[in-house]
Fold this sequence. Notes:
The protein is mainly alpha-helical. It contains 14 helices and two strands. About 75% of the residues lie in helices and about 0% in strands. A two-stranded antiparallel sheet has the order 1-2.
Amino acid sequence: MCLQALDIGLIQALQNTGGWLKPVMEFFTALGYPQAYMAIIAVVYWSLDRKLGLKMAIYLPLASSINSILKFAIHAPRPYWVSTEILAIHSPNGFGMPSGHAQASTVWLLASCFLRKKWFWTVAILLTLCIGLSRAYLGVHFPTQVIAGWVAGITVLICFIRLERVISSWLKSHHLYRQLLFMLGTTFLIILAGAIILLITRNWDLPADWIWNASSIQSLDTNLLRAYSMASVAGNAGSFLGVSIGAVLMGKAGGFTVNGKWWVRLLRIVLGLACMFLLYAGLQTIAPGEANLSAYAIWRFMGFYVISFSAVYILPILFVRLKLLKSDQ
Length: 329
């Protein structure tokens, strides 16, 4: 209780700094949503550094999958669920521990490890800190949950850096069908882990005081929370599968170089992001309601798969055909 009281006090201190900080914190929180990362990583992949963009695109859904599973396993509350003294400037569904924004923000540290530039390390650390801090300011995470997100993210990052080259070399030594089987198997394990946690915690119910405290902000429902968590796992698994299969097929197609005149690089970005936006908007029109748990999770899986696969494979192939990209083959 003492730690929770300290958490609440820190959030109140942040929120009492004044309304001028709100748009700043909302900006950094917006940078931490999947849609923002998709756009940013796509820009890196198409027009700045293909290898770095691919590393970020593979790392992010893996880290986010682990975060979703941890949240569901721990099922810790968000600040405004336990204290009416906290102003919930945002009101997302799902559990609070660890912070998904904080954990995902470590993707910038991955980029720093790849680029090895002092100036970018400074930018990456500031982005990571500000994205995490924004979650506490907005009243959606305790500071300890933000710290836990950073710790979990850095742990995943260390494992990723140590294993990525080994696994990549191993995959390149095998035929295409074995590479695809490995990607499918990894995706299945992500979904299986989420399903097992769901099964283990199926009899757990939200405490009545959490529901009561949050009732003025949103309606908390056990089924909705479970749907959010499993749908999140499914979406991250679909994103990983789309990126990994797209990367394998892109490698077989010869890859590409991002070099080119500035206006050509800009044209790739504008055209590519426009295509992704239209695809995302189209998928939203066929989205089932969240109350239909299985259908919503399947839609999330397929939607993130299609968008990720398109960004990594379909759009670069289109750019090559339009002579906006040069194939390495």
